[in-house]
Each structure stands twice: as structure tokens, then as C-alpha cells.
Prior knowledge:
Chain A is of the alpha+beta class. In chain A, 35% of the residues lie in helices and 11% in strands. Helices cover 38% and strands 14% of the residues of chain B. Chain B has 18 helices and 19 strands. At the A-B interface, α1, α2 and α3 of A face α3, α5, α6 and α12 of B.
Amino acid sequence: MKLNLKIWRQEDAKSKGEFKNYELDEVHGDMSFLEMLDVLNNELILKGIEPIEFDHDCREGICGMCSLQINGEPHGPDRGITTCQLHMRKFNDGDTIVIEPFRANAFPIVKDLAVDRSAFDRIQQAGGYISVNTSGNTQDANSIPIEKENADLAFNAATCIGCGACVAACKNASAMLFTSAKVSQYALLPQGEIEATDRVLNMVAQMDKEGFGNCTNTGACEIECPKGISLENIARLNREYMSASLKG
Amino acid sequence: MSTLDSKIPDGPIADKWTKYKNEINLVNPANKRNIDVIVIGTGLAGASAAATMAELGYNVKTFCFQDSPRRAHSIAAQGGINASKNYQGDGDSDYRLFYDTVKGGDYRSREANVYRLAEVSSNIIDQCVAQGVPFAREYGGLLDNRSFGGVLVSRTFYAKGQTGQQLLLGAYSAMNRQINRGKIQSFTRHEMMDVVLVDGKARGIIARDLVSGNIERHSAHAVVLASGGYGNVFFLSTNAMGSNVTAAWKAHRKGAYFANPCYTQIHPTCIPVSGDLQAKLTLMSESLRNDGRIWVPAKLEDAKAIQAGKLKPTEIKEEDRDYYLERRYPAFGNLVPRDVASRAAKERCDEGYGVNKTGQAVYLDFSSAIERYGKEKAFTSGHKNASKEEIVKLGKQVVESKYGNLFDMYEKITDQNPYETPMMIFPAVHYTMGGLWVDYNLMTTIPGCYATGEANFSDHGANRLGASALMQGLADGYFVLPYTIGDYLADDIQTGSIPTDSKEFDEAEKAVRNQIESLMNVKGEQPVDYFHRKLGLIMWNKCGMSRNEKELKEAIKEIAQLREEFYQNVRIPGKAEGRNAELEKAVRVADFLELGELFAKDALDRNESCGGHFREEYQTPEGEALRDDENYRYVSAYEYKGAPKDAILHKEELIFENIELKTRSYK
């Protein structure tokens, strides 16, 4: 198939960006979206044009490195996948595809389609852990049985890949789904209880400090999340936050 | 030819590690504050080592090329992590895990290291649970296990098909705790460009900031390379796009011996190649072999009809299917080790029985599992006379709960529904057992330069068992290196911080700048990928699942030619300053072009078949690997001497005191 691509180009965080148009021929349905960009980049290099910078690594939907707002949707039109898992069979011959970086004040642009998501790391550093030494002097793994239902819910929350699609999907650029996933994982496990109060307060404080917007419960994040992280996690975060605030 | 000192402690194997830990030097907590350690790579081995060393009190700097430590490729490991907990009461023990690993590695690993790995394995699970890693549990609330290839017990702990992700997020959370305490400085989007030696010791690195393009100097008292494997020398592999050998190779060029480069794991269950422009391959977890049955048509005419698209797999009758693993290896069946399963698939496809349009695929079929689980589910829920449709429906639900995410992934990529039609799979490059040579302390032949996880060579011999990479990465990082590095650093308590304005740093930085400048100045005709793809094809065709003398000799020549062509004709657009993905790739491919040749040289030297290294000249009449323990019971460790063909081979003899050398049999 033949495609018209409208791609955001921006030299670095300070420069002004703009859309540039590219045409690409002989795109096959079995190609992934990023392979399509690889092909375009190779053509650009041969023509002496600087290739388009975009983040990617594992190309199997788990590292969370790839991003891209495709026709207005984070990770494109398909559901439950990342951009690297999006295949060109979802598009038709002659389509125009608009490709932009994830847009949020807390995600400054690095170059072209690559953005800086280190704000997510800083939210995790503020409390997204259990303070246990890694020396190995812990009790036997089976000494605390955990109800399967809670273990499964904790796992579901923990599958967040930190890609930032929730922020890009949100009209307020809120990071509540991301933050709530981590808070929930620990809130659902007995190991996480001890530090629950400080954890939720510190992580939310850091989230606000990074400049993410407020949550107005539109639910766009849940729809666009490649891992299906549930809005229930936001409800759980709110409960945790309320009870922590009362204690704190 | 010199011999290498592996520094294995004396004593009975089960006591070595405990005794050794009691005897080595320690650094007192106050002195640890004056010692800096650099860790390259933040996968399981790097993140766990960084967190533990920071917790002990060392000042740690971590470097990763990704935009966050959490994205290292350990994240993509699916199936699980082994530990000799014996929670299932099925006869597991440290010894059995040790034995399985040595046998699985085709008797080419170091006994003492493997025993230590088995010994600390249980503790990894305790540690991870304490960190909040959400492993799969049974209804009683206890941890669940499953079975992997090459073993007869269920010792694999898992978190659905995302075990690597959950373990890495655990290690990353431990890192975050130390970052928050100021004990780890995390440098993301940074590439290590060289290791700096001062008085023969590793004392720092030169790094490139991948956003600004700035060249930076970082000093430390020791450097830990946890930079992963080199499977991307094949271009197409299950590794991440950015996975590379550069950190390890730069250390090799500075004096670290590179061990067993030819030991590569070709994983049997990957999604087959779909087109010429494909950039990466996707693994389907080995856990699928617990329930999936692998087959090809028994009749050649059926295979031809399938390849031509005239016949569907579901139309082939049971008696016309060849479940070749069950046929050849009745004891282990579909759960033979990876090297055996891959070679068996290749054998069938080479004979013309492959099943997709290229003939390079076999079926992985869940219909029996769906029926078996469906019957069980119907029975336990009171439907004693369930119809076939009901059974299939219930069975699909069970299979979905076990493997749902993997089935979804398969469907997204191939556009086929694996609940209705068998999956198509084919072997692909997945893991490299070879790597930097290390002694029992995990130190390379450069004093103060350590290698952990996939970056070293030590524990898996010529073939790694499933769910053992995660175990090794975390064992090295949480429980081994933090002890052994202290023994070395005990001599550095009065050294003080290492200055970065020395002539050694000046020279190293200059060399890095020169390399970048010369690459930018080639201004040739072809992009980096052109060379990388070409290299990958040479590797796959001549150094892949089976190798022979003639083709290995050709490969050595062709790779050297390709390398020459690369330096004459590569085109890197843009500038050396600022972000430039093509320049990053060029630096990595330059190193792959050297490693590839050493790989072929090593494969040519090893006149035997063992594990993942299969030489066509050395096989039994039944086509099984034929080892030569008399002449090749050694680790090959290469010393850099300029061109890879000039590398000097050093041998570490492998001594087996606890396990009798036998022909590996899974029949």
C-alpha cells in the first residue's frame, strides 16, 4: 500500500517543531508500524535527509520505550497494544497518517518523536518500593500466604509498562493511572502495608510537582492503556490517599 | 598457551561458597562510603547489583542506554525463574538443580559456579516476594510452579507470561529506593564507549550522553559490566533493538578475555520470519511447551500442500501427524532442552516437512490441551457428560487463563487465532551463553572489571535451560557480586576518589572522539542497517543452528570483508552532537563486525558438537550432538590482539568432580 505520512519534526527541546509530509510506497500489511518507520528512515538516509528520531527497544510491547500519537491516539488505532505491536494491516492504501510525539508539559520533547518521561522515574523514586534490604535475609517466600484474588489484582496493576500513553490520552495530561497502578500493586500485598501511608502521599506529591494535570475521571487513559490497567486502581489510590491524609 | 586461574575455592562443592564468604576480605561500612562503583546496564544483573551495593554503602553510578533503567531487556523474559525450593515436593534439591544445569549445558560449564547458583536460587524467591513481586499463586495463597524444558521437576516460579518484567520492576524498585537515598546516581540515555584503565586496573569509563552527544568521564574503584548478551550479531533475534556487545567488547579490547563466543542459544519457539524488511523476532514462551504439542505432517505431500496453501493443519488426521519430539525423545517429549528442540525442528524443515509458505516453520498445537483441560474442568464442575463443544469451550477458558497474553500477542503479530488453528513457530537467536571470561569472583581478566548476568560466560555452558537466565542475573547481582567485589575493594579503602583528569582518561576520551569522528567522516553510500543485515545473514547461514568447517572459513573471510566495506561505505547522517540514532547503531555494529569474526573462529576451533554449538562433522548416526571430552573439555577464552583472526586462545580446563560426564540423553 501507499501512505501519506505527516510527521512531527523538532530538532531538540528548545527548537520550534513542525509537521513534514512524506510519502511511502510498498508498505506491507505484515510490517509493524515501527518497521514502516525503519523503511522510511532508510529512504531518507539514502536521500541525504536526516532520519526521524523515535524511541523503541524491545519491539514486543513490554519495555514501554515506544510511544507515538498516531492519528490522535497514543499507540494508534488498535487496542491493548503498543506502537511496536501495531501492524500496517490496520491501515488502508492511500491513508494519511499523522504521527506526533506524546504531548504533555511533564514530557518535554527530546527530538522529533522522542520525549523525556523521566518524571515517571521520579514518581517511582518517591516511594514506589518496599524498603527491604536485598541481602537475602528475608523469611521464606511461602510464610505469608496471599489470597489469589489479591495477588492477581496486584499483578494486573504491576503490568504497567510506564509508556505514558495514559498521560498522552488525558486532556489534562494526568499521571493518575500510572501512579495508581504502582500504589495499588503494593496496597494489595501484605508486604506493602507497612509503608502505605508515606508511599501514597509522597508519590502523589511528586506527581503534582512534575506538572501532571488533575484527574477528572474521563477514563480515556484506561481505553488507551496498552496493558489494560483498570480505572479501579485510581479509585484505590484515592481511597489510600484519603486514609493516609487522615492519618498523616 | 597460558592457563586461566578460575580461583575456585577448595573443599566439598556444597561448602565452597559458605566457606569462601567466611574467608574473604570485607570492607567496613565507614570505608564503603569512600568507594565508588560503576554499573553498566540495568537489567536484572545490573539493577540488582547496583541496589545491593548501594545498600551496603558503596557510591554507585548506573548507566543504561534506554530512557529508564526499567526498560532493560530482562523485562521481556516471559516464562519464569528457577529455584530449588521443592515446594511441590517432587524431589527437587540444590544438587538436582545443579545437576540439571550442568547436564543441560552439555558439560561445558564450571561446576563450582553452577552449584553456587543453585544454592542461592531459593533466596532469590524469598527476596523477590519481600519486595512485592506478584508471582502466580494457588488458591491456598501459596506460590505456584510450572515445569520447563530439560528437567523432570516443577521448579519454575512465574508471573503469567511476564516474569522478567515483574522481577526487573522489583530490582528497579530496589534501585529507586537507593536513588531516593542518594546512593545511586542513575544515568539514562548514556552509552559506555570505553573502559579506562589506570595502572592496569579498571578505574572508570568514557560515556556518551545520547541526547546531547557530550562525551563524559566517570571514575570509580571498580566497573561492573552487566550489559547483556550479543545475540544481535545475527541482526534478527529476540533481543531488543538496542541490545549490543559494545560495553563487553570495549573491555575485551582493553584486556578482558572473551569466552566461548560461539555458544549461542537458538530458541525453538519463536514466531517465524514474515518478510525481508523485518527488524526483530518475537519469542513465544517456552512455558507453552508444557501444554503445546509440536508436530509437522508425517507425509511429504501434506507438507507440500500446506506450503502451497491448499491444506489446513486442522484437516490433517491425527495419524498423519508426526509429533517428532515425542517420537524421538519419549522421556522428555515436548520438554527437551532448547538446543535439542531447535535442531529437531530444523531437521524436519530441511527434509521438506516445514509448514508455512517458506517451509521454515512447525506447528505448536494446543488442541489436546484444550480437550484435556476441558474434560477436567467439566468433571470438577459437575458436568459428567459434557458434549464435545462444551469441553472445548471450557478447555479454551483454562488455556486462556494460563497463556492468554501469549495467545493474544501471537494473534496480533500473525493475524491468526491460535485457539482455532495451531501456532506456527520456528527457532530464532535468543541468548548467548558466551561472554566475558570471569573467575569465581565474577572478575574479568582486567583487575577491577567485573561481568555479571548474560554478559559473562560462566554458568550455562553450551546451552542454557529455560528460566535460568533470570535466576543467574539476580543471583549474580543480589547475592554473589556484592560479596566478591568487597574482597577486591578492601585494598582500595585508602585510595581516595579516582581523578578524571589523568592522562589515561585523556587518552581514552581522545580515542572515543576519534572513533566517532572517523565514523562520521566515512560519508559513504549505505545506512548502518545495510551492513548489520548482511552480517546477520552470514551469521545465520554459516554460524547458526548447524556449522561446518567449510562455511565457517567462508564466514571468517566474508565478515572481515564486510567490516572493511563498512569503514569505506557507511553513511551516518546528521551530526556527532545531539541525538543521532544512526551514530549509536554504527558504534554498535562496528563492534558486532569484530565479534562476529571471533565467533566464527571459535566455532571453527571447537571440533565437537555440544549444546548450542552443532558441528555437522561431529554427530551420531541418529543426528545427536557428539561431544569430544578428551580434547575439548575446556573454556575457550580469547585475548584481543588487533584483528579477531589474530586473537590468542587461552584454555580453562573444566574439571568435573561431582558430576560424571555422560552423553546427554533425553530419550
